[in-house]
Request: fold
Amino acid sequence: MAKKKAAKKSAAKKASGNSTKYVYTWGDGKADGNGSMKPLLGGKGANLAEMTRIGLPVPPGFTITTEVCTYFYDNKRTYPKSLHQQMEAGIANMEKIMGYKFGDAEGFPLLVAVRSGARDSMPGMMDTVLNLGLNDATVAALAKATDNERFAWDCYRRFIQMYGDVVLGVQKRPGEDHEPFEEVIEAYKHETYSNKDIIDSELTAEDNQELVARFKKLVKDRTGHSFPESPWEQLEGAAGAVFGSWMNDRAIVYRRKYGIPAEWGTAVNVQAMVFGNTGENSGSGVAFTRNPANGDNELYGEFLVNAQGEDVVAGVRTPFPVVDMAKALPAAYKELLKVRKILEKHYKDVQDVEFTIQDGKLFMLQTRNGKRTAAAALKFAADMVKEKLIDWKKAVQLNPADQLDQLLAPVFDAAEVKKAKQVASGLPAGPGAASGKIYLNADRAAAAADKGEKVLLVRVETSPEDLRGMIAAEGILTSRGGVSSHAALVARQMGKVCVCGASGVEIDYHKKTVKAGGKTFKEGDFLSIDGTAGTVYGGELKTAPSEIIAGLVKNNKAAQKTEKFQDFVQLMEWCAKATKLGVRTNADTPEQVKTAIAFGAEGIGLTRTEHMFFEGDRIDAMREMILAENEDDRRKALKKLLPHQRKDFFGIFKALEGRPATIRLLDPPLHEFLPHTKDQQKELAAKLGVKPAEIQRRVEELHEFNPMLGHRGCRLAISYPEIAEMQAQAIFEAAAQCVKKGIEVHPEVMVPLVGYARELQLQTEIIHRVAKEVMKAKDVKFKYLVGTMIEVPRGAVTADEIAEHAQFFSFGTNDLTQTALGVSRDDMGSFLNSYQENDIYPQNPFASLDQTGVGELMKIAVAKGKGTRRNIKLGICGEHGGDPSSVTFCHELGLNYVSCSPYRVPVARLAAAQAALAK
Amino acid sequence: MAKKKAAKKSAAKKASGNSTKYVYTWGDGKADGNGSMKPLLGGKGANLAEMTRIGLPVPPGFTITTEVCTYFYDNKRTYPKSLHQQMEAGIANMEKIMGYKFGDAEGFPLLVAVRSGARDSMPGMMDTVLNLGLNDATVAALAKATDNERFAWDCYRRFIQMYGDVVLGVQKRPGEDHEPFEEVIEAYKHETYSNKDIIDSELTAEDNQELVARFKKLVKDRTGHSFPESPWEQLEGAAGAVFGSWMNDRAIVYRRKYGIPAEWGTAVNVQAMVFGNTGENSGSGVAFTRNPANGDNELYGEFLVNAQGEDVVAGVRTPFPVVDMAKALPAAYKELLKVRKILEKHYKDVQDVEFTIQDGKLFMLQTRNGKRTAAAALKFAADMVKEKLIDWKKAVQLNPADQLDQLLAPVFDAAEVKKAKQVASGLPAGPGAASGKIYLNADRAAAAADKGEKVLLVRVETSPEDLRGMIAAEGILTSRGGVSSHAALVARQMGKVCVCGASGVEIDYHKKTVKAGGKTFKEGDFLSIDGTAGTVYGGELKTAPSEIIAGLVKNNKAAQKTEKFQDFVQLMEWCAKATKLGVRTNADTPEQVKTAIAFGAEGIGLTRTEHMFFEGDRIDAMREMILAENEDDRRKALKKLLPHQRKDFFGIFKALEGRPATIRLLDPPLHEFLPHTKDQQKELAAKLGVKPAEIQRRVEELHEFNPMLGHRGCRLAISYPEIAEMQAQAIFEAAAQCVKKGIEVHPEVMVPLVGYARELQLQTEIIHRVAKEVMKAKDVKFKYLVGTMIEVPRGAVTADEIAEHAQFFSFGTNDLTQTALGVSRDDMGSFLNSYQENDIYPQNPFASLDQTGVGELMKIAVAKGKGTRRNIKLGICGEHGGDPSSVTFCHELGLNYVSCSPYRVPVARLAAAQAALAK
Reply:
């Protein structure tokens, strides 16, 4: 921290010579600053300077730089010597342009607005003081100059109230019910009109005059000092309040949350007042240059006639759509449309602006890039390219990657949602909307789906045994588990809608009922879940798939003709042009592979072979293998599994059409495959012809205290090498079949959970031997790679040794996060909330890569791995592969590809393209 | 690897100029090499040169260097050009000294022995070929020169057999029952004497002549080549066999196991034969210069008259104690006693020698440092200092640290063991010997001990609830769990004897019986366990505590007068002089503290506060705290715990007498404190006045899939800050009490399981606040530190950030190993064996620090921690703190202290001293 500060200081000195420039003025087409100077001038100040430079009508003013803020805190809340003089020059410049005088008690007095302005807009800081410069003398001058007694006293009353509140700190104290200034107004209205419903703008000049007197008394009573009459004292007080607010609690919490360094500091903007409240030919408004909801190319916003800016957002009067300005203030509206074009052309992005019309003349008070939905972003970008406002690279950058999946999700009709009753909420784990009859068991869910029912699988938690039910269901609802729980993981991979961890949902497996929101639902009753919002509704709500899914995956011609679809395809083409970082997919079936390829995946980054063991009667052979007492029996059972695995791999290779496939050998602890209830154990015993007690004994034997850290991954195949042997044989025999049929194959065999180079060496020996044997037996040749997951910290720090045996590394960041942090994602529910509230986790580390900790281990592994094997292939196959900021990190780390679930492929491609273009 | 090789090559070139010296001769008081040249000459060769230099009678010879071995493997098993010429010079030198000629068919032929000799002695390599140089011509010359036909043909027969076996590979084939040469002898004895019990030395010259003929035929049949008659061909064949054996399977496995690089290579030693088998004035023997079992200052070994060296170890004839040489070969014996003195004085260590007497003259064939027991080492070192043979530094280094705890363990009387029946075996988890009546439950064990019974606690596994029973027991026997299981850990900390994971022991809690070795033992029956060997005996065996424990801990005056005790105390004093690395202890009670201090601990490195919550009725308050539904109820329960904790800390501070105490805040997951059986839950419910279902619900709620990675450590106190608050209050109030009573205190408050700097920051704020409050309330001042465990990899790689808030780091290497490797020590039993057999784990990583992986993380943490806080205090408090090689690593890492269980303190002190002296 100390270092950064010093660097900033010396930079400031260097930039400014001996006497530092602390005040940057703008007005009348000229400005000291410009739009690129956000670090020094803050976002608001830089854009005001920029708008001035490009000839837009901006009331003159000046910015006190963020360096003054730094000075302020480094020097016991004092200011640099030369500041006051520079501010005087700033005011003089405004006076010259406006033709008014600051504190003029004779002619029109120059009034100013004072606003904070950090590099990024930051809630929690002092916002605005308007009408500064008024006092008992200037208020009279204003009244005279405008010939509007009521307007002048209204301004003065507003000013004392605002200044008293945000600068002097006259605010509600603990135990008080109302803001003190509001209390005074209420009392006055009550005693004068016996009516506290009268609105402030209905108060007369005399009312406001009386209120000014009472406000001043309140300030004196509360602060012990009189309200400052000197405009300069007011101005310095306001600037001090802005700087002071940089270190208030809310601002500190916000900065910590978003990782904004305290050294950045805030700027202060002082700007000549223009008045939207001088009459029917004046007004104020806010607008987007295009529709931020759907992206339509139209001015979009709200305005009020005869009002100051705060009135538009305060909600006392209902504002009108900005298009109505065409009638109410036609000249100003025309001007605003011109400004809109200029702004978009200049900023090459949709802008969010504030403006005021004083006596028919438009003034711009702020501009910034507008926030938008994913749909709007897609259309903005596509349209602006067509309009030649921007090029395709800029278009890629204008689409927020973390929102892209909104475009893929089916949605509930808004009207349906309004009618529906929300009965619970949970974590939004699989975006989209789904309605269906609830089933509490995978078999019954699958059976109902077979009969053509729309099904919602509802479970306390899901496990691999629920897979059939999950496949059959429209959506999955769980009452326990986080965004990385089995349900969430599988749902995302399959693109299923999912709400998980909905703790308000009480599930009774025995009675087959679900209680939620005070109602009891039986199996077969309808529930609806919104996996984007995490909400659960009673009853059925209609949904529709997005045009993009319909067009890409289901090849729906009508969908393919929509603008949204075409814009999306266009965007993905641009991404392909931009990026070097490949995107692969985590997929276990040919169907998933096809979906991912439709989304542009370049291959498979992770096939989890164990998922294949749950289908049909394979699970029996698998269980037989686990229960085997010796190698011979184990080999017998493995022999039964071999043809199934070979067939699976063949299907996957075929679907890949020559793209590479990273296949992970068996990973989970064996007990996951065994039945855990007495009935299931009995059933299995009967099938295998052993005693139920035998099965129970083996289940108990396989029990682990911490299965995550137990006998799994390559540890299984070190104990039982014949498992690796069978899997390698299945992979290579499938590859051989492909070659014979003229299908190109690139298998990449991946050994999981390697922490010691020797583990990989032993496994590699088996895999190479089997490859040689298969090629010889089948008389074909094919290329293949052998590599490993880096998913325990020891693997990362000994990556140099491991790379001796690995042709590729794939970072398994799910497990690497668990081990690096010492946190089980299945158990973190009990403290995740307090960890986020206390700003320990900036984000859930299983959703977005912990770049500081886990990322550091990855850096070490990359450096060490490349040290041994310069061209080692590097990828990531944890869930983070579909998270935009994690993808950016992977790009910077120099990985060759990221891999994510099929439905995250577009997000990853966009993030990868953006990372590449950012360089 | 390639790098190391290149470095070695260039070093060799550099050392030797253009023509490299490959052959180093010795003999007649002169030698090319010396004892420090083990890397080049191997251990045997270097010591033969050294013995020659110091004037001992060594038959002349030469060493072919390890560089030739490297050349051999780098050049397709060929030799450097100049080698043969250098060997010729070597042989010429021997001929000159001996007055014989190699291959002389006229006079006495020079015969040689060829032996391998790596840097460290290494089983699995070719050992010895004797009598090389004999052929049909020289055997006749030998017979003539010695006038002993039988002797000459016996030598020749032995030579062909040895050479045929180890050089020509005429060995037993798969399916054969006997060695082929033995087969020939058996057949000959049978057909000639109809008696195969006749021994080889009874065979006549003619018998041997016939056998030579038959052996030669066997060689021809098996190899397709005639037996080499040329002595030079024989010599080169033998040298090639030595080099070849460097890469045989057994040697490779051994090197991998002990981390010996293949590049070291082996040397070949060629030495003139001397004959112990020429008659009654000749003989061979092996000896230690002192007794390696008990350390007595006496020559200790065995010899045989009229025998070659192999005869002594072959076991065909029973050798005599070496002291008997005084009668049998008095002159040679006197000479040997002289040699003994010279060797010890020269090598400054006890030597293990081989010798041969030929016609009354003594020849030394080998010397090396002797292996010894801990007791012998202690006495050797102490005596040799008294004799002024060595200084105290050397004495410290002569004691093997990893054996020191042998000195502390009580032992079974050897006679008792012989009579006893071994019924099972398990892991030697707590060294020592214990007999007692078995109890299968902690309460019954404690009750029996209260009645004065000697008790052995027998459990499937132990948990913190068994603590009372473990304290009460003489020893602990478990049928499940490894050397790092709860039972083992607590046993070592308490110095209890423990055998764990004795899978042959079947425990029936219901019937209160233990089945082992086919017998059933009921509660109250005696069992005996040897925790040094891991054996379990039926019945009672007598034990005695070691003199050292008795003297140091029990202050037994008689024990203190023993030589062993005094030597030990002396050794510990030397250690204190040598070392900078401090040794602290892991202790939870004043008794443990006192024990550790008696062993020389400098303070506490780890107090686990949670152990304190199990005593008496505290567990009820603890459970009440856990079951609390809100902060108020939690605080109420914590208030009950406060006085207990305060009292505990006061007791510990008092016992420490001013030494520092690192106190870890609550660490384990809460469910560990709750009862898990229905009955216990009912009982607790009654006590707390809640429904049993309520308790069951909470237990289920607290269930975790991977508790090791769950809601524990500082995560608890982040969720419930009031826990940290109470513990800090207890610590600081106890400190305040001490200060008032004039007792010096140095509390060091340690926050567990920190992975994020912000976690520590939040905890630190609480601790500092409470410290300030207590000092103010009690009106005293004391110094204290706040620091953290580094026990998850993220903590290590972000140590720079964490050090902003930590005044010290203590490496929790138990958990750091679990998380870095992704291995649960409680679950590793299922693959530990295969991991050790496959040379993946060189050692159990929970017993000896994984320096490559976990150590790398520690290095990163030390560098980053010091980067932020130059003088940060660094320690280790994992079980590794008591493991010698781990202590050495900690010394090299620059830690300030290691901490281990009280009974490991001497081991750690010795290891620390040795590490310091090694620099």
Q: What stands out?
A: The CA atoms of residues 185 and 211 of chain B lie 7 Å apart. Chain B touches chain A through 51 residues (CB under 8 Å). Residues 1-17 of chain B have pLDDT under 50 and may be disordered. The longest strand of chain B covers residues 361-369.
